[in-house]
Structure formats: structure tokens, C-alpha cells
Amino acid sequence: MSIPAAHPGTDGRADELAELVRSVRRLVAATVLNRAPASDLTTFTRELDDVAERLEAHVPDPPPHITETGGAGEIGDAFEMSERMPFDVVVGRYTPLALPVEIEFDGDRAIGRARFTTPYEGPPGCVHGAVIAATFDIVLTAANMIARAPGLTVSLSTRYRRPTRLHVESRFEAWVERVDERRTYTHGRIVQGDVVTVESEGIFARLQAGTTGEVAGGSRSAS
After folding, report:
1. Which domain holds residue 38?
2. Which long-range contacts (CB under 8 A, 24 or more apart) does 89-93 make?
3. pTM (two decimals)
4. Does residue 9 belong to any structural domain of this protein?
5. Are residues 147 and 195 in the same domain?
6. With contact defined as beta carbons under 8 Å apart, do 154 and 204 qualify?
7. Which regions of the chain are under pLDDT 50?
């Protein structure tokens, strides 16, 4: 397995950035779950504003394009996919917005594993539908990579059959149904235990081989 080049946003500081992200994820969870008195919240806010200002002093002007990838060409496996999208909102290891969802390849299927926590809540005790849709977009894209039919998302539909519960492992499964000259048609589902909670279908505008890295900095949608 080839190791992709370091992403320009993590090169030389990956471990330290990962620790910062871990701390911010803790902060996000504590912000949602805490029952601190109002006076303490005011103190915490002042302290966090100070940290934010110190970090903002290191943000270039204009801000960097973090959608740059760590290398061009085909993405050959799930490891490369996550490494080349380190700031992705679903699988990114270096953004506190991501859980992150873990992706693996299993034969002709892409598998995403996640145990969503309270910051990702929609209905009480359940995962937000928008979070589910965003995760499907990535897992279906991973299935397209396996089929050597990568593409930009044209449409994505989700059918919510049952609530997808927080704090329970969600197994996203995705596979390519068919491919033609212009489009890739991909299906997926979420399984919790032995229950299918959500089904999804995606249509993707196909990319030519070797152009996967070229979409960086552009829109992921296509008409």
C-alpha cells in the first residue's frame, strides 16, 4: 500500500494538530452536555475567547484552501481516502466537526462505522438526518472508488425507515448498482444491530481515471 504525501495543512505538525482536535472535540461534547452555573459559563467563555484569539493570530490572510489534497491520482484504499481528506466534515481526522466516521473496504462494498454522540443529535436520542445524509455521501463515494467509477455527486436520496439511535454503532454499507458512460448509480444502507434504519441512493457524474485529485478546491456537485 502506498502512503500518500502529507497534506499541506498537516505536514510537520500532524500529531500536535490531532491532539488539538481531540481537545476541541471534548470541548464540543462538554458544551452540549454541561450543566454548569451561568457564572461559570461566563468565565469559560472569556477563557475560550482568549484561546481563539491566539489561534486566529496564526491563520494566514487570506485563509488557506484546506481542500488541497496530499497528492493527485486514484485513491486506492480507505486509508488513502481518509488521509487525503483530513479536514472532511465526515471522515476528517483533523477537524473537530467530524466524529470521525471510520471507512474500510470489504470486497466490492464500502463500510462506514460510527457511534454518533449527542453533538450529532436531531430528534431526541437519534442522529440528525443531515448528518446521516452527509455520511452517506462519503460512504457511497468510497464504494465508487472500489468500482473504479469515481464521480461528483449529482443527487442523493435517503429513506428514513426507523430512527438511527445515538451511542449505538451504525454500520453504513454501500455498493455500486450500475455504471454507464456518464453516471455511477450507488446504493447504501445503515444497519444498527440487525435492523436497517436508513436506505440511500446516489447518482454521481463520472470522472476520468486519474482526475480524482483535481476536484480539490471545486464543488462536489454536478448537474
Report:
1. 14-56
2. 89/134, 90/134, 90/135, 90/137, 90/138, 91/138, 93/18, 93/21
3. 0.85
4. no
5. yes
6. yes
7. 1-2, 68-73, 212-213, 216-223
